[in-house]
């Protein structure tokens, strides 16, 4: 008897329709995988630093499993998470430019991450030889710019419920069991949306009561109804 899970039917526009990620990198992975064959693989332990803000950027990294958090640190030592790089995406994109430095620090998420380093010059030669690789990188960067605009809009304009729903969707990882989970702390979510931690705790409590999420221990949230969260993120919330 087959134990394969039946596919979950979701709306065509749901951002978690394939991997629980905010964008569909799957269409790009077949092209970006060509770069992995020429890179240097590395396994990161949970929370391990990949590079630091101000370090010289000699290339870029491809995320194969888990996720990488990029954050900036101000003069007072406070951290602001600015991006989550899910599996299939590029991080350390400062390395795409000449003589660049990393503008943020990057560390592996709480489940660790598998990454692959592609030196700048080697990656440039591969992109010149195969336009599909260059197109994949440009498309991925364009999507990152779009998401960055959405995050800026969310911080300044969206209600707390919508902003937090967007972060939950963007931070989702897909486990080997097919479960969509978030491994951010309440304070990290608050940092990403620019809200007080108490507000995040209250909204997450509402989501839990409404059956949208479930708590699975410390710093681990499961998405029970990603399409419901998507509706809230898009402003289709009656509350």
From TrEMBL:
Transmembrane segments: none annotated. The keyword DNA-binding applies. Residues 42-108 form the Cyclic nucleotide-binding domain. Residues 158-227 form the HTH crp-type domain. Gene3D superfamilies: Jelly Rolls. Pfam families: cNMP_binding, HTH_Crp_2. The keyword Transmembrane helix does not apply. Keywords: DNA-binding, Transcription, Transcription regulation. This is CRP/FNR family transcriptional regulator.
């Amino acid at each position: 008897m087959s134990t394969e899970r039946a596919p979950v039917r979701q709306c065509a526009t749901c951002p978690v329709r394939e991997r629980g990620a905010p964008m569909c990198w799957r269409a790009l992975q077949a092209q970006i995988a060509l770069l992995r064959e020429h890179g240097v693989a590395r396994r990161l332990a949970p929370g391990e630093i990949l590079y630091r803000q101000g370090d010289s950027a000699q290339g870029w990294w491809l995320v194969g499993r888990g996720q990488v958090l990029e954050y900036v640190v101000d003069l007072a030592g406070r951290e602001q998470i600015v991006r989550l790089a899910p599996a299939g995406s590029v991080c350390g994109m400062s390395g795409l430019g000449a003589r660049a430095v990393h503008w943020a620090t990057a560390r592996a998420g709480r489940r660790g991450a598998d990454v692959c380093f592609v030196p700048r010059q080697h990656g440039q030669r591969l992109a010149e030889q195969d336009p599909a690789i260059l197109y994949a990188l440009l498309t991925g960067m364009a999507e990152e710019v779009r998401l960055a605009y959405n995050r800026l809009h969310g911080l300044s304009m969206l209600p707390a419920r919508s902003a937090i729903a967007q972060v939950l969707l963007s931070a989702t990882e897909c486990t080997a069991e097919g479960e969509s989970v978030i491994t951010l702390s309440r304070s990290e979510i608050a940092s990403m949306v620019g809200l007080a931690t108490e507000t995040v705790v209250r909204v997450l409590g509402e989501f839990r009561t409404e059956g949208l999420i479930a708590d699975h221990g410390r710093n681990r949230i499961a998405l029970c109804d990603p399409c419901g969260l998507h509706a809230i993120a898009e402003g289709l919330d009656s509350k």
